[in-house]
Every structure is written in C-alpha cells, then in structure tokens.
Write a structure and sequence with these properties.
Residues 307-437 form the ATP-dependent DNA ligase family profile domain. The chain is α+β, with helices and mostly antiparallel strands. The chain is built from 19 helices and 23 strands. It is globular, with a radius of gyration of 26 Å.
Length: 534
Amino acid sequence: MHSFAQLIYTLSGSTKTNEKLQALVNYFAHANEKDKVWVIALFSGRRPRRTVSGTQLAVWCAELVNLPMWLFQECYHTVGDLSETIALLIPEKTNGSTQHPAQPLHYYVEKFQQLEKAAEAEKKLFILQSWLELSSRERFVFNKLLSGTFRVGVSQKLMVNALARTVQLDANVIAHRISGNWDPSTTLFSALLSEQSTQTDLSKPYPFYLAYALEGSLTELGEPADWQAEWKWDGIRGQVIKRNDQLFVWSRGEDLITEKFPEYTILQSKLPNGVVIDGEILPYKNGQVLNFNVLQTRIGRKNITKKHLQEAPVGLFAYDLLELNGEDIRHLALAERRAALEELIGMLQLPWLQLSPIVTFSNWDELTTIREQSRAINSEGLMLKRRSSAYLVGRRRGDWWKWKIDPLTIDAVMVYAQKGAGRRSNLYTDYTFAVKDGDKLVPFTKAYSGLTDKEFAQVDAFVKKNSLEKFGPVRTVKPELVFEIAFEGIAASNRHKSGVALRFPRISRWRIDKPPDEINTLDDLKKMLELYGK
C-alpha cells in the first residue's frame, strides 16, 4: 500500500503530464505483479464496491479517537472529505511501534471483496486494525477504496502510454487488452499484457474513439467534401457485439449492460457472428428521438419491467462498424466502414436499429445553418469526421470533432451555499439558485463549477458576511448575487418545487452588472420547458 499511496500523492500533486507519466512508469517497473493488475483496474474505472457506509466509518473513527460525534462532524465539515478527516484524526504510528507494516495494495482490495457480506463486527475489526497499521497517506487512500469513492486525475490514455514503456506492446493493443470483462483478482499481469497472451474473452469491446470540441473556424478543416457530418446524439454511447452466437452490449464507461436493454435480444439471432457496432442508445419512439430524460427513467434500475419498455422505448443509432466477419476493420477509412455498416443495417430491417443519418451539405455556411436545427430534434449539435479517418483509440485531435450548439441560459440569484470538497473544503463553492415567481423566489437548480478561483474566494467572503440562517452545512444567504446559469436541456420534474430539472447545469458567468430584481422568472423556465423539454 505504501508504493500505491505514494503514487496517488505524486499524481494528485502534479499538474505536469510528463511527471505523471514518469511516476506511472516507475510504479509499473517496480510494483508487485498483483498490485500492477489492480492499479490498471482501478485507473480504468473498476472500483471496489462500497464495503461499509460512511456513517459507520464516522462512528468507528469517533470511537477510536474518543471524540463526540458533534466534534467529529465539525471536523468533517471543515475538512470537507470523510476519508481525509479520518486519515487526519487517527494518530500516526510512532517510531517505536511494534505494529505490522502495511500490506500490499491487492491484499486490501481483495479483503474488501471478501468482507462484502460479512458481519458488521468482522468488518469493524479489520478496518480498525488497518487504520492503526497504516500511515496517514496510506489511510486516506485505504478509505477512498473502502468507501467506493476512489478517483484519480489520470486519463486512461496516460496509463496506457506508461504501460507501453514497461511492456513490449503497442499502446493501442494495450488499450484493447485492458478493456472488457476481466477480474483483477484472478488475472495475472503476464496473462493480461504479455506478447504471447491469447485472450479468449468473446465479450471484449474495443476502446472508444472520442472527439475534441471544435473551437476554431470551420474553414480551418479544409474542403467540406473531405468531411462527413452527423448529428451529435444525447444518449448512452455503446458497442453491440455478436461473437460465437453470444450478444454483448457495453457502455462507454465499460459497463456490461446487455440485460438493461432486452429490446436488443433479437440481435442475437439477427446479427452475423464477428460483428461490433459502435452507436448511441437513445429513447426512440414512432421514428423520433425523445428527450434524454425519458431514458433516465431506466438507467440504474436492476429490473426492467414491461411498463419501462412501454414508457421508455429505446433505439440504437449506429455510428460505425469496428469488426466484420470476426476481423478488426478499424484501420479502414471511415467511408469504407460506413458503406459496410449501411449494408449491414439495411439487411437487418429492424425499425429501432437506425443508421445515424449523414447530414448533407455543400459548404460550411450551409452546415452552420443546419446546426441551428439541432435542439428541435433532441440533438446536441453536429459531429464532423474526416472521411479518410481510421477508428483510433481515445480522444485525438485532427480527424473527429464535436460541434455542439450553444447551451440554454437563464439568470438567477444565489439563495443557498455549502462548502465544497477536496481543495475547496474551506470555501463555499456549492450554490443553489432561484428565479422569481411573483414576490417569491423559487429554487430550481444547484451548480458548483464555472467560476475562477478568485471569483470563488469573493463569493465565499460574501457568504460568510451575509448568511441569514444555517441548516447543518448549508447557509441561507441574502439573495443579492446574480449568475447566468448554462444548461444543456430541461425536463419536467415532480421531485422539484420549481417543476423542472436541468441537464448539466453550471455557472456561465457572474452577472455583476445585473440587480436581483432583473433575474428571470419561473414563467421563463416554463416557456423553455415548452420549447425544449420534449
């Protein structure tokens, strides 16, 4: 655990890509073989499931250090992170300690798995013993893993590049090897990444090719004829795989979601073997793409009922063909892959399985006009793909671009504030906003991003000077600061007092120029709902 904790602190403390890359290279060159497998798993999103609740951890720590719960809670609100609070409160081991040194990383994460269904007393004993044998840094990382909240600010691409310097494999091959359904508890590093490895996982998806946001002028892309334009859909990016008479559906987040979409079962008999389709899972009915909010009613449910299938039907809009007749065809030009995809989809004749339509245009000005129609068809904008492009790995510049429409915006006043987490744990950075409804203010959304560090510090000072009431960590503030809130979509909601829910709300700018009595109204939100909340 010591080496892993040191790696995490090095990665989180650096903003330089080369320093992070070198730290990963050094780790993979010297770490325990089983630990290396777990690092690959953790850094590619395979976090251990939560073993105990945050409340249990807080109570056990308070008992261990003999603190009343109210004082523990005050410490927690000041630090802003439960794992860090516990790590700081438990004293460090003394130099003369006779306690055992920390175990390797794989020992702890595999122990979490073993304890998942154990009695509370057994879990408590293991956790308390581990807290006492770990250093503060190790304890912090241990807590993050234990609570299921482990995240690290390192892209999978960076990890793959580090592995490519450690093993004799191309980065693209590594990215494919570490994708899919493999168990870090039983997988050997040599089996995963050796040159001689012969993996037989039929379900394994390909790494997704991702686009960068288009920021420059369209004319910089060159000739319009060299590009294919498609609508950018707002759904779940996924891959549908048929191999050896078995069907698999993967999300971009590398979750195996085959059982979530029983509509796709027919593809097990319809699709030829050795086919992989890249596409978007969308709410789709009567030939129309529905609002993403419809799909959200199915996301996260363990069991999909007949009612869900009727109220939230889904389609699959196919973007690309990655494998055909069992052969990886990602190296072919997009134009060739698209032709093969069109032939395949045309042969299947399934009404919910659609080709993502190509948007025809003759010049960039015409495409700019077409893009303005995006929101009317529940699209986020356009995708631009070079017709000669191969299907690459990860996010690359040059051949694929996303050109999203401008977000919706509304002016609102801040009414509540709460302290943030991590490096912002001592600042009020999480805000609730309201619009006018006659003489009243109606809260309608929360946001915690979009301001500079300097602006967050200024708002924090305002909150501390202008608090009206305190409810636990939340403070009611004088409704004087106006902000422009940007969001991607709007939907009706019975769970919110305002009657609406926003998609991806964030602070667009601080409207220092606008007084609170000039903010938007609840009627303005409802008009937006009528226009864009299909």
